[in-house]
Specification:
The protein is an alpha/beta fold. The chain contains 13 helices and 11 strands. It is globular and about 65 Å long. A hairpin with a 4-residue loop joins β1 and β2. Bound molecules: adenosine-5'-triphosphate and fe (iii) ion (FE). Adenosine-5'-triphosphate binds next to α6 and α7. InterPro entries: ATPase_NBD, Gcp-like_dom, KAE1/TsaD, TsaD.
């Protein structure tokens, strides 16, 4: 099978063609990142217009790079949930249009399932069932991937996603005004600033949810604690509007450290629960970490320590596959194609869903454990 995948759920227009062995035959991506950075966040109608402007070229480029024609493609996989409705609609309409034009089956794809399964594309040792942590600008969830179309949700963020918290903190600390930081996402800027710190323990922030027996996450409280420190520093030092906050590097490091400790603590709880409930086989324990915030090497180092302690192998896709892209959608199409799951020749009634939880929730079961 050769599958073409289309991704437009948020602010990246992506397309890729992937074969059954996981070879990327052609790929193309148009990122709206810089435009939204200048607007201070994503404005959905602008995202939609940019998707509409680029979708045709992005798809044509991926097909041309693959040196293929549509005759060679078996099906078209497209993200239909979850995401920004206006953005999702552009991809779905274009995907269906191609299916009609070239008489191909349509495969609706869940964006988060695609993130979770990407790790299997280049690493055949990632076999079901495995634990997966997805940390990005819009999501934070911990789940067991049982099979291609079966996921069990162990925990999720009760407020902000980690990437969102990184972005908000970076904006408030005016990191963009530092030299060499203007093109970076909030998360990248914060990681770079944190690497320049003298004392990551200078600002004392408390780890949230330590007393909670579930594996949910919370990042809004850490963010507020830090922003309170920002205000204190600004008041005490009387800083000019555009200049960086005093103590900015230590603040970034303190924030990153507490975020990391929190994520590690929750993941460790999830591992312990999965083990007790028999969800993960004791002889092959794997943690997949993906999503934009998985690019953070400090968080990854913390997680690899937890994995070492509990006998897990950690797998992190390369950075370009952690953030949104067409490859992961095509690969999810491949995985489904192989098992003949979700391949539709009659697809007119398939529609987008802006909210679509990943899998079946075990959050209550986790909470009620002893
Ligand atoms: P979703 O995939 O949930 O719809 P998204 O499109 O915002 O959300 P991604 O494209 O996967 O997510 O990732 C972007 C997010 O990742 C941003 O919030 C960004 O700040 C964060 N991020 C990127 N690099 C890093 C890093 N090194 N450390 C922390 N966060 C990072
Ligand atoms: Fe994503």
């Amino acid at each position: 099978g050769i599958i073409l995948g289309i991704e437009t759920s948020c602010d990246d227009t992506g397309c890729a063609i992937v074969d059954t062995e996981g070879n990327i035959l052609g790929e193309s991506l148009n990122s709206q990142h810089l435009i939204h950075l200048n607007n201070g966040g994503i404005i959905p109608p602008i995202a939609k217009d940019l998707h509409r402007k680029h979708i045709e070229n992005v798809v044509d480029e991926a097909v041309a790079l693959a040196n293929l024609s549509f005759d060679d493609i078996d099906a078209i996989a497209t993200t239909v949930k979850p995401g920004l409705p206006l953005s999702l609609l552009i991809g779905m309409r274009y995907g269906k249009h191609l299916c009609r034009k070239f008489k191909k089956p349509f495969m609706p794809i869940h964006h988060m399932e695609a993130h979770a399964l990407t790790a299997r594309m280049h690493d055949p040792t990632v076999q079901f069932p495995f634990l997966v942590l997805l940390i990005s600008g819009g999501h934070c969830l911990l789940a067991v991937a049982v099979k291609v179309d079966k996921f069990l949700l162990l925990g999720e963020s009760i407020d902000d996603a980690p990437g969102e918290a990184f972005d908000k903190v970076a904006r408030r600390m005016k990191l963009k005004n530092l030299p060499e930081y203007s093109q970076l996402s909030g998360g990248q800027a914060l990681e770079l600033a944190a690497s320049k710190a003298n004392d990551p323990l200078h600002y004392k922030l408390t780890i949230p949810m330590l007393q909670y027996k579930n594996c949910n996450f919370s990042f809004a409280g850490i963010k507020s604690q830090l922003l309170y420190q920002v205000i204190r520093e600004e008041k005490s030092k009387d800083v000019a509007a555009d200049s960086p906050i005093p103590g900015v590097y230590d603040m970034c490091a303190s924030f990153q450290l507490v975020v990391t400790r929190h994520i590690c603590h929750r993941v460790q709880r999830g591992m312990e629960y999965a083990e007790r409930a028999g969800l993960i086989p004791p002889d092959k324990k794997t943690l997949v970490v993906s999503g934009g915030a998985a690019c953070n090497n400090f968080i990854a180092k913390g997680l690899s320590m937890v994995c070492g302690e509990l006998g897990y192998k950690m797998v992190r896709p390369q950075p370009k596959l952690c953030t949104d892209n067409g490859v992961m959608i095509a690969w999810n199409g491949v995985e489904r194609w192989k098992e003949n799951i979700g391949v539709y020749t009659d697809f007119e009634n398939i529609t987008i869903e802006n909210n679509a939880p990943l899998g079946e929730s075990l959050i209550e079961e986790v909470e009620n454990q002893r």
